[in-house]
Amino acid sequence: MRGLKFIEKFKSTQVHALNQQDASSGGCNGCANGSKLSNHKRTKFTGSKSNKTKSGSVAQALLPYGLPSTDLLEPSIDPHLKPIHCVKSLADLYRRFETCLESDKSMLFIEQYAYLCGLGDAKLLRRCLRSARQYAGDLHLKVVLSAWLKFERREDELLGSSSMDCCGFILECPKAALISGCDPNSTYDHCKCFEENAKSNLGPIVEKFVCLSLEEDDSVTFCVRDKEISFVRNKIASLSSPFKAMLYGGFVESKRKTIDFSHDGVSVEGLRAVEVYTRTSRVDLFCPGIVLELLSFANRFCCEEMKSACDAHLASLVGDIEDALILIDYGLEERATLLVASCLQVLLRELPSSLYNPKVMKIFCSSEATERLANVGHASFLLYYFLSQVAMEKDRVSNTTVMLLERLGECSTERWQRMLALHQLGCVMFEREEYKDACYYFEAAADAGHIYSLAGLARAKYKVGQQYSAYKLINSIISEHKPTGWMYQERSLYNLGREKIVDLNYASELDPTLSFPYKYRAVAKMEEGQIRAAISEIDRIIVFKLSVDCLELRAWLFIAADDYESALRDTLALLALESNYMMFHGRVSGDHLVKLLNHHVRSWSPADCWIKLYDRWSSVDDIGSLAVINQMLINDPGKSFLRFRQSLLLLRLNCQKAAMRCLRLARNHSSSEHERLVYEGWILYDTGHREEALSRAEKSISIERTFEAFFLKAYILADTNLDPESSTYVIQLLEEALRCPSDGLRKGQVSSSK
């Protein structure tokens, strides 16, 4: 009966626009054009009649693109793997990990990463990447995973750092990544980057080796045109089997004292370098151009030791993108694995900026380029998974993203990898409004076993006019599998009226973390003039899952209700999460809206800000506290302790990436050594380096006994040791912290910790 009713909906003349977008409507988040919102509807949100015109004009100025519309609301399709039974899939992964080979563990953690991506827990995802790097023995895997970990930490935000700087640990060290082999127990140790390596003066050595006399009775001369270079016969013969056969086998050259080398593609300087190498086994005596010639020579005559030496030396010379772009072509041509790995590492550690370099993308994007990388063992699913995630984060609908995802599909060897590549291609094509291609990729992903891709297929079918087919497809998923929240959320898109609300309510019951049902119900209530009920509805999701889209919607609703102070609070809190956030579908910067709202609220003096902060922190109003601190930072951006306090709030709100950004900014703006050490300690603690974090805390205390340093030390120890003796020591540290100068808010936190 339900299906028959749905067919009748499409026979009627009523138009049901799932996501009607045009230039004036704003797009995917569901904002209608300002002109579509009638003055009559606006007056429902205002107070007395005398204030209607004034309030309406203010709201119109603050909402130039109108209010959200239910007709245009549509949840995004999750671009990550979304198994029907997530817990079962993760349990299966754990069982496989317990029985698999050591060499397979790294990619199992990447598979775990793919399944957990949809949860959005940055700390959990970073733990997966760290574990994958811990068990990576292959050179290529180590290079990619080290760069990925570096990308996730965004180390470039620290003052004075560069992409190739080492954080001091093997896990992310660029030099350690270029050493083959795996020792899972040492990857969390310190690397040797900061050890002093005495370098000898090589100038005199070159002259010394060049001037050494030859054993005349066992010499052979190689000629390049009119130039002659003398070699010790047994030394050049030891370079490779071909030379040994030529000089001691049955070839005519074995009887000659002079051999013509003019037609073998080597220069006089190159051949002289070969002679020096035969006696010294060193290539670091020569300029890069000569070493490249030696590499080519070694490849042509199968001199494996010489090739390895050239490969390693050239790899050590790669320092920036310019070096990498020059040397990677030589490495690919000569199949120098280590050199290509070193170049690849620089390009990856420069992400996301290198993503916009056409020369860099030429190396990765074409099928021919992938084949060249594969020839030296540097084309993998992992590489393209990393590249495609960065591309999707920066610009999901770009041609670069499409090409990288196509290469991802070509490198897929396991079923979960094919599912992921095909599903993400479907998501990208859907957002590019190439719906037929989206149908193809979603269907292929579903055929590979990814049931959630059928939701994308239904959306794409709806877009091309196959409305009933889309509805029937979602219904079949619900009937064939154990129902989950997203299934009913998807079916609600093809329903109207009460049936739509019933599906959304059931979706919320099955999965309270889905934000779309709350957003839809809030906007629906707003359209009915129940503005306060709309705010209460969106509050339900914000209280336990903070996200920028929900904060933005609530700010809109507060503007519609003429509650500009609350709207300002939400906008300021939103900017603490994403400092460059653009409101109204990317049309108005959040900073600009703050300026507009400031005209309609009483300005806050520094004293007002502190009073409000104490009030809101004490009442555990985290969003309010976040907003006040952000307002204080607008007035005085150099206050590192405010950045630090902001990071604590963001961590409490489970906004890990934003919290780490604030910590780094606090570290950058710190005015004293002991303060900087505390912030670095928190960064190290949050990235898993507890011993180093503890060392920073103790060093800070040795410089100056501060509340923050004692609290950091106590926090680390409390999280590390749970025995009674340690607990007593932690309490003593907290008591020491309370004796140090600090504001009442932090001391209150310590008292509650005790």
Automatic annotation (TrEMBL):
A Gene Ontology biological process term: protein ubiquitination
Pathway membership, UniProt: Protein modification; protein ubiquitination
Cited Gene3D superfamilies: Potassium Channel Kv1.1, Chain A, Tetratricopeptide repeat domain
InterPro entries registered for this protein in UniProt: BTB/POZ_dom, ETO1-like, SKP1/BTB/POZ_sf, TPR-like_helical_dom_sf
Residues in BTB domain copies: 218-318
Protein name: BTB domain-containing protein
